[in-house]
């Protein structure tokens, strides 16, 4: 026994099958791309994380070098240290920091360059202070020498006055 609408049933079944396969394909594609987007985001986040970690390590190394240089700058004008040697070490440290900034691909190079510039300015200010302090010490020594010479001059004037009085008295006695 054969149904009368066999062709219509076949056509409807084929349409259902095609629609079913289309839906399965759309769902599969959606699932595939929904997994691909998070993977791409994950890769981007990993890349950003690596960049952040690299910047953080650079920042730690930079701050360590900078604090070392700042410590030398703090002790450069004390009497215990040799300022020329420390000044050379500071200059060398600043050059190393500049080289680190130039070779690394850091996000905020302007910030690090300004920090190095400030260290260089502090170094030159300390040198100028050292030079001016030496001049003040020389000026103080010269002031003391002037006072000493003035007191010697005053003593010589008094002695000269005494000698003039003695000469005057001797001249009066001769007369």
Q: Would you give an account of this structure?
A:
The protein has 175 residues and is an all-alpha fold. It contains three helices and no strands. It has helices at 6-75, 83-103, 109-174.
Instruction: Give the overall shape.
Output: rod-shaped
Total of DSSP H or I helical runs spanning 4+ residues? 3
Number of strands: 0
Our measurement of the CA-to-CA distance between the termini, rounded to an integer number of angstroms, reads: 183 Å
User: Could you tell me the mean pLDDT?
Assistant: 86
* Backbone CA Rg: 46 Å
Helix and strand element order: HHH
Helix content: over 70%
Oligomeric state, counting identical vs distinct chains: single chain
SS-derived structural category: mainly alpha
What share of residues are in beta strands? under 5%
Largest sheet: none
Low-pLDDT regions: none
Structure characteristics:
single chain; mainly alpha; 175 residues
Summarize the structure.
About 90% of the residues lie in helices and about 0% in strands. The protein has 3 helices and no strands.
Q: Topology of this structure?
A:
Elements: H1 6-75, H2 83-103, H3 109-174
Helix pairs in contact: 1-2, 1-3, 2-3
């Amino acid at each position: 026994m054969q149904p009368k609408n066999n062709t219509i049933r076949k056509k409807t079944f084929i349409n259902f099958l095609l629609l079913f396969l289309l839906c399965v394909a759309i769902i599969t594609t959606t699932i595939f791309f929904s997994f691909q987007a998070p993977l791409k985001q994950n890769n981007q986040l990993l890349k950003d994380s690596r960049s952040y970690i690299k910047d953080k390590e650079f920042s730690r190394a930079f701050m360590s070098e900078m604090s070392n240089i700042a410590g030398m700058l703090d002790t450069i004008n004390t009497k215990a240290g040799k300022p020329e040697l420390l000044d050379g070490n500071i200059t060398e440290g600043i050059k190393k920091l500049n080289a680190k900034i130039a070779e690394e691909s850091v996000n905020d190079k302007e910030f690090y360059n300004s920090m190095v510039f400030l260290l260089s300015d502090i170094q030159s200010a300390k040198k100028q202070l050292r030079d001016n302090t030496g001049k003040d010490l020389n000026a103080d020594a010269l002031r003391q020498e002037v006072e000493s010479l003035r007191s010697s001059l005053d003593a010589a004037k008094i002695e000269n006055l005494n000698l003039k009085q003695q000469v005057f008295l001797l001249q009066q006695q001769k007369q």
